[in-house]
């Protein structure tokens, strides 16, 4: 039987491995954004608007888990660069609708095709057996479920 101290150390090692992977992928994403002269958040805005056109500012804040004020600053830069159109619908003057321009769509597509983290992860996965890759996906999904981040999580049904 594993002692509480050993469980605590093991939990710390697992958390540290997730944090390190997260830091590495964020660093790659930031590098990708910088190569296009933008911030990580601006890049995320473009990619999100490409996948889901005509979002409102409120919907975008929900998807990117960011405040309206933080997003507004980044959107201002994208509007000035001619990448995003900000509209206030006549039927609801309190809403702000966001749409990519053609230039914004093209840039978002280039950003996605240049995703360093995806290319690096593909190279890493090539070094692992198919069984190991499937195990990683299965275990990570199970961990996420147990953390309560998924609709299937037993913790969300309490």
UniProtKB/TrEMBL annotation:
Pfam families, sorted: MarR
Alphabetic keyword roster: DNA-binding, Transcription, Transcription regulation
UniProt keyword annotation of Magnesium present: no
GO MF assignments: DNA binding; DNA-binding transcription factor activity
Domain HTH marR-type, first and last residues per copy: 7-145
Protein origin, superkingdom: Bacteria
SMART domains the record matches: HTH_MARR
GO BP term, example: response to stress
Alphabetical list of SUPFAM superfamilies matching this protein: Winged helix' DNA-binding domain
GTP-binding found in the keyword field: no
Protein name: HTH marR-type domain-containing protein
């Amino acid at each position: 039987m594993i002692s509480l101290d050993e469980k605590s150390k093991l939990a710390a090692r697992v958390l540290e491995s997730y944090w390190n992977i997260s830091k590495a992928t964020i660093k790659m994403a930031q590098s990708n954004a910088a190569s296009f002269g933008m911030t990580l958040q601006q890049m995320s805005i473009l990619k999100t608007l490409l996948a889901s056109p005509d979002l409102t500012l409120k919907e975008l804040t929900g998807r990117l888990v960011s405040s309206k004020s933080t997003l507004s600053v980044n959107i201002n830069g994208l509007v000035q660069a001619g990448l995003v159109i900000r509209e206030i619908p006549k039927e609801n003057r309190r809403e702000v609708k966001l749409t990519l321009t053609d230039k914004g769509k093209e840039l978002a597509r280039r950003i996605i095709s240049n995703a360093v983290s995806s290319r690096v992860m593909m190279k890493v996965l090539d070094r692992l057996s198919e069984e190991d890759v499937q195990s990683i996906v299965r275990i990570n999904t199970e961990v996420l479920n147990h953390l309560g981040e998924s609709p299937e999580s037993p913790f969300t049904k309490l």
